[in-house]
Amino acid sequence: QNMNSTLHYIHNDSDLSTNSSFSPEEERKSKVQDVVPQALLDQYLSMTDPSRAQTVDTEIAKHCAYSLPGVALTLGRQNWHCLKDTYETLASDMQWKVRRTLAFSIHELAVILGEQLTAVDLVPVFNGFLKDLDEVRIGVLKHLHDFLKLLHPDKRREYLYQLQEFLVTDNSRNWRFRAELAEQLILLLDLYNARDIYDYLRPIAFSLCADKVSSVRCISYKLVSEMVKKLYVSSTSAFVVDLTNELVEKFCRCPKWSGRQTFIFICQ
């Protein structure tokens, strides 16, 4: 009883009642749920208020973004409407650290929301992160497989055209970005058919095999070998024949010793 009265007092606090973000009646109703005390959720949602970030804590939006998947899990899929606006506000925050935090957790949120809500509400945000700063892009790249596997196969194929964009970074010295791409491509082999692997993933893999950084090349050797294995077990054997012929032509018969060494490492 004491807890309820305290929450009732907080809920009717003048600071909250005068908050413009909760003034329209329709908007207020859209954020009502019965899982946790409503006052507690209202306090959480008010963290995205710009005035609070200026007067209370400049990092408050980042903390809010960090906790959002946990809040979504607690409220459940049926109450996502309570968090949707707050999530979109955080996803467009001026601070890249806030967007980076969301980028690292968007795959977890997709598991909570399911395929339908993910396609409608998360995919547009995900697409925005793909075009963001490298500090934000690395968040979606590290969990690219985890996110794409939750999408419908037709929607998943649309990202084949964008994978090569990860080869371009704001700083060319950022080799860990390319190394992470190679790691993710190994996992993505299970999500696409032989034709897609040959047409879209093969050129990226060959480009990574010729990278200037040895750590990137080492991961890429594994990527190509897994690609050969995947194409070999597929029903279309022509792809693996073409791929092996290309390996021989590009690396085994390469005039440079480094190219011929690449071929040996892939075979190994």
Automatic annotation (TrEMBL):
Q: Which organism is it from?
A: Tricholaema leucomelas (pied barbet)
The UniProt keywords, alphabetically, are:
Repeat
Q: Which domain of life is it from?
A: Eukaryota
Q: Where is this region: Disordered?
A: 1-31
GO cellular component terms, alphabetically, are: cytoplasm
Q: Which PANTHER family match?
A: SERINE/THREONINE-PROTEIN PHOSPHATASE PP2A 65 KDA REGULATORY SUBUNIT (PTHR10648), SERINE_THREONINE-PROTEIN PHOSPHATASE 4 REGULATORY SUBUNIT 1 (PTHR10648:SF8)
Give one GO term, molecular function aspect: protein phosphatase regulator activity
State the protein's name. Answer: PP4R1 phosphatase
